[in-house]
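Consortium newsletter contribution from the modelling node. Members have asked for a concrete example of what our holo predictions look like. Here is one, prepared for the adenosine-5'-diphosphate complex that several groups have been discussing at recent meetings.
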Amino acid sequence: MFNKILIANRGEIACRIINTAKQMGVLTVAVYSDADKDALHVHMADEAIYIGPSPSRESYLLGDKVIAAALKTGAQAIHPGYGFLSENAGFCRACTTNNITFIGPPVAAIEAMGSKSAAKNIMEKANVPLVPGYHGDDQSRDIIKKAADDMGYPVLLKATAGGGGKGMRQVWSESEFDEGLAAAKREAMSSFGDDTMLVEKYLTQPRHVEIQVFCDNHQHAVYLFERDCSVQRRHQKVIEEAPAFKMSAKLRAQMGESAIKSAQAIGYQGAGTVEFLLDVDGSFYFMEMNTRLQVEHPVTEMISGQDLVEWQLRVAAGEVLPKTQEQLVINGHAFEARIYAEDANNDFLPATGKLSLLQTPIESEHVRIDTGVRQGDEVSVYYDPMIAKLIVWDESREKALKRLAKALSEYRINGVTTNIDFLYNLATSKPFIEEDIDTGFIEKNHSLIFHDGAQELLNELPIVALYLILSNEKKAHISAAQSNDPHSPWHHPNAWRLNEAHTHVLVLAHNDDEYTVTVEQLFQSQGQGSDVNYLINIDNKQFDCQGTISNNIILVNINGHRSQATISVDENNISLYRENGVFNFTHILPDCGQLDIDDKHGGLTAPMNGTMVSVLIKAGDFVKKNQPLVIMEAMKMEHTIKAPSDGTIDEVFFQAGDMVDGGAELLAFSTDDE
Ligand code: ADP
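And here is the predicted structure:
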C-alpha cells in the first residue's frame, strides 16, 4: 500500500477520499487555490500545497502544478476524484512519466471512451447492446438522414465529442431533420470545435440505470450492482438510488455482465461506471462509460457494505479485488440527494454566499452526509455549488424514502438559497414514491414539485398562522419568566391575555400572492395550547383550530383533522414541511414592509464564473421586471439573468462569447423609482 497520496481535487470528494486514506493509515496531501486556503479538505489533510488562483483553469486544472506538488511532497499516487483532471488522458500519462501512480484506469481506457462513436464501435465489437443507430465515419447528410428514416422517428442526433447534454437534438419527424442536424452541428462546433454526429433512436420513456464495475490488474472483474439515476434536470442527476426499483435478478445479472464486457473490451482497471438506457420493455442499451469514481458512488457503498475508495487504493497498489462476485450481496436500499446552493425556482441558477447557519440531520447508520463545507464557509462563484450529498439507507425503498424526507426537513441552511425544498417535494411526490419514474420525471411532474396548486396552499396557511401565534405566545412567556420582575403581568398565567388583542391579523405571502389571515382567540377554557381554540379566517373560509408546538414541530387539529408538521423559521421566511411537500411563506410585518425577495438572487452581478452566451438587451432599453436580460453558461448549463424590477439599462459590460468572472458587474441598471 502507498505511504502517501495526493488528492487532486477539492470539496466533498477530497474530504471523502482523505477519510478513507486516514482509516487505512495512508498519509494525504491536499492541493488548494486562493479561494480554498481555509477549506475543510486542506484542514483534514496531513499536508497541503498551494497551486494557484481561484479559477480552476489557473489551479485545479493545471496538471503540471499538481504533479509538481506530488513530487515535492513525495506522494506516490494521485487520486483525481471526479471532474477536473479525472478523465484527462494527458494528465494520466504525465503521472506515469513522473513515476506517480494514477488512481484510475490506464490511459488507453480513458482515450477509448473519449469519443462517443469510437466507444460505440468498441462496444459493438464486444457484443454490448447499443441503441439502434448510425455512428459511422461517413458524415454526409444523406447517409445520416437515411439511417434516421430507416429506424423511424423520433431520433436523437448527438455530437460524438459531446458531453453535458450539449450538441444533442431530438428530431420528431422527417420534415424536421435538416433543421435539427444544422442546429446540433452548430452547437457541437461552438462547444467542442468538432461537429461529427451520430444518430440514435430516441427512446421516449427511458430510465438511466448504471452499473458500478471494478477490475484489478489480475484479470478479476466484478460489478457492484446498479444505480437508478433517472431523475435528472437538464441531463444532470438530482436524486440517485440503489438498487434500481422494478429490477429483476435476471435483468441485473444481464446488465452487470454487459458492463463487465464493456470494461474488459478496453482493458479496464479500477472503478468505472457503465451507463445504460433502460427502455420500458426491459431492453437496455450502452450509453457511455465513465472512467472514474462517480458522484453517486455512496449509494452503492451503503447497499454493498464496501468502501469504494478503499477498493480504488488497493487496486492501484496492485492488490487483488477485496471480494469476488459471489461474495457481494445487496443489503437494503439507499438514496442520495445532491444538496446544491441554487435556486430551483429560477431555472436552477447557482447561488453564492456565506453559510451563516448550517445545521445537518444527525448522522447514523441510516444517515450519511458527505460534505466539504462547514458553517461560516463561503459558497464561492468559482466551483460547483454543491453543499453536500445527503445519503440515507434502510431495509426497504419505502423506509429509506421516509428517512430521506425526514432528513431533508431537518436540514437548516441560511445565507444561501438551496434546493432542499425542491428535493423534499420531489422525494415526497406520489409518482416518485410509486416508482413511476423515467428521465422526463421533473418535466412531467412540474406542478407537484413546484406546488402550483392554490387550493393546496389554502389548507396549509392556517398551520403557519397558528404556529406564529403560538410561538409568539411562548416567547412572551419565556421573556417574562426571565425578567425577574415578580409584578410582571407575564408571571400571571392568564393575565397577559387581558392586555392582548383577541384578534390578530397576519399577512403571509407565497410567491407573489399575499394572504390576509385573521386569527381570533376563543376563550373556551383556561391556559395555553391545546385547550385554546382559534378561529382562523382566510378569504372568507373559516378554520376551527387547536395546536401545540414543541421545538419546530406543530401538532394541529383543524376542523377536526389532526396532523403534524415541521416548521423552520429564518427571520420572516417560514418553511412548512408536510407529507405532500414543503411550502414557503414570508411573514409580512406591518412596520417592515415586504422583504425584497430579489435580494437573494444577487442583482445584476454574475452569479458564477462562466461564459456570456447572449445579451438580449442594449443600453437605453427599458425593461420590465423578470424580463430576461442576458444568458450565461456555467457548469454545463445555461442560466438566464432577469431584471429584478422595472427599469432602464444604462450600460452593458459584456458581449456574447466573453468569459465572465463570478461577481463581475454585468450591466448598469436603474430602477424606475430611482
Ligand atoms: P452527455 O454525454 O452529453 O451527458 P449522454 O449520451 O450521456 O450525453 O446522455 C445524457 C442523457 O440524455 C441520458 O442520461 C438520457 O437521459 C438522455 N439520452 C441519451 N441518449 C438517449 C436516447 N437515445 N434516447 C432518449 N434519451 C437519451
